[in-house]
Amino acid sequence: MQAKSGAKEKEKEKGGATNKNSFLTDITEIRRRARQHIEDGAVTDTYKGDRHVVLRVLNEALATEIVCVLRYKRHHYMAKGIHSQAVAEEFLEHAAEEQEHADLIAERINQLDGEPNFNPDGLLTRSHSEYVEGESLVDMIREDLIAERIAVESYSEIVRYLSDNDPTSRRLMESILAKEEEHAEDMKSLLETITREEMFEERNKAS
Ligand SMILES: [Fe+2]
Ligand SMILES: [Fe+2]
Among all ligands shown, which has an atom nearest to the Cα of 98? Predict the structure, then answer.
């Protein structure tokens, strides 16, 4: 029975990974995947079993952070236009903070006798957030905001799962979660400022 549902899940995962056209499908898939691992953990009684799930979930968080570093770096170098300088600096700052998160998670995986997965093969499948380049500055900020919201959502689930099972990993993920919330707020403010300024310029051009 379990093998059957496992095969089904795998089939679903495959479908979700290939369907990149719909953003909503991707988020649903990402949340389903995070939830699935957590449910696996709940039925495992032995420490070894729990550790296995914790390591898998932490490696997914590691992949998420690496993808965030790469996306923010890309956005930093590609930011153009009159508003670009301050935004490019913000992208770079976020890239450095995501790198710190990746290092902290890798260190924790190591402490749990696991292996941090830095393999570029399958990185986007393991990651909860996506790598979207974005054409304009506004596109880039919007994609970063979406990625941060995904991280907030999935890390919140990870924190709830870790609960008392692994308080050290939970505290680490809580501190990272707080930073992702700040990042999301930064991107939201930037998006509002740039949109307002662009509207103002358009109005000036028209008059
Ligand atoms: Fe991060
Ligand atoms: Fe972030």
Answer: 1
Which ligand has the nearest atom to the CA of 101? 1
Q: Are residues 51 and 22 in the same domain?
A: no
The answer to whether 158 and 33 have CB atoms below 8 angstroms apart is no
Estimate to the nearest angstrom the gap between the alpha carbon of 200 and the chain centroid: 33
Cα(170) to centroid(ligand 2), Å: 17
What's the 183 CA to ligand 2 centre distance in angstroms?
Answer: 5
Q: Is residue 41 part of a domain?
A: no
* Same domain flag for 55 and 25: no
Ligand 2: distance of its center to the CA of 94 in Å? 6
Closest CA to 61 of 8, 126, 114: 126
Q: Which pTM value belongs to this model?
A: 0.76
Whether 84 and 161 map to the same domain: the answer is yes
Q: pLDDT tens digit string along 35-47?
A: 565 554 433 444 3
Q: Is 17 exposed, middle or buried (0-12, 13-18, 19+ CB in 10 A)?
A: middle
Give residue 150 CA to ligand 2 midpoint distance, Å. 10
Residues 119 and 23 in one domain: no
What are 163-200's pLDDT values in tens digits?
A: 888 888 999 999 999 999 999 999 999 999 988 887 88
